[in-house]
């Protein structure tokens, strides 16, 4: 019998199968590694110096160039930390946090917000802030067929008057309204706060139209986040406003955090 060689004895089907397995395993490892560009290294309760990465580890940073200038590395390295008024429920990994103060003001649990950039989202065309109030956006207005909330009384979840809507903030990129600007009277004077449009509703109350915010009570309007600049909202401020107002869905009333039965 004539001797063969390695080419004639090669099983292409087997080679293709093993090649696919190797490629698929490498693809899973690559995707899992890329998934760690945010949120890693992890934090272990009670062990601040332990920062596990798992396998595979955190990838080398990529430099992302922003449209209107500037660069952002991913992963960013050690994310900035802020004090959290909460304690771990137990020392196990993944344990929940138990608030120790006012969770809405402290930004804990559903009211937590991210340390995003202290700069506004920019419009693609002119590199100017994308979200601005109507008072400086002459090209935008409320449709004549829709109710205009400006000048309406803003009431809380119990129907108690808590402020007055003074303006609407429009997203020039998406052509939608993002926030209501509300003037709230306090003992220290008037303060302006922002209410996300998805969390408000125009309803009839006492024979007139009012803006109802069911996630907050009157006392929460006095401690809601305010803006550093009157005509500009930064990415971090957007997170803080949305987290505060949405967090009231759980924290505004004690019975909201209790069991259904």
Describe the structure.
18% of the residues lie in helices and 23% in strands. The strands form 3 sheets. Strands 5, 6, 7, 8, 9, 10 and 11 form a 7-stranded mixed beta sheet that branches. The mean pLDDT is 88. The chain has 3 domains: 10-60, Photosynthetic reaction centre, H subunit, N-terminal domain (Photosynthetic Reaction Center, Chain H, domain 1, Irregular), CATH 4.10.540; 62-109, no CATH class; 117-257, Photosynthetic Reaction Center, subunit H, domain 2 (Photosynthetic Reaction Center, Chain H, domain 2). It contains 4 helices and 11 strands; from the N terminus they run αββββαβββββββαα. The radius of gyration is 26 Å and the shape is extended. With 261 residues, it is α+β, with helices and mostly antiparallel strands.
Topology:
Elements: H1 12-34, E1 62-65, E2 71-74, E3 86-88, E4 97-99, H2 103-106, E5 131-133, E6 153-155, E7 161-171, E8 176-186, E9 189-196, E10 201-205, E11 208-212, H3 218-221, H4 235-251
Parallel strand pairs: 6-11
Antiparallel strand pairs: 1-2, 3-4, 5-7, 6-7, 7-8, 8-9, 10-11
Keywords:
261 residues; alpha+beta; Photosynthetic Reaction Center, Chain H, domain 1; Photosynthetic Reaction Center, Chain H, domain 2; seven-stranded mixed beta sheet; two-stranded antiparallel sheet; 4 helices; 11 strands; 23% strand; extended
In short:
The chain has 261 residues and is an alpha+beta fold. 18% of the residues lie in helices and 23% in strands. It has three domains: 10-60, Irregular (Photosynthetic Reaction Center, Chain H, domain 1), CATH 4.10.540.10; 62-109, no CATH class; 117-257, Alpha-Beta Complex (Photosynthetic Reaction Center, Chain H, domain 2).
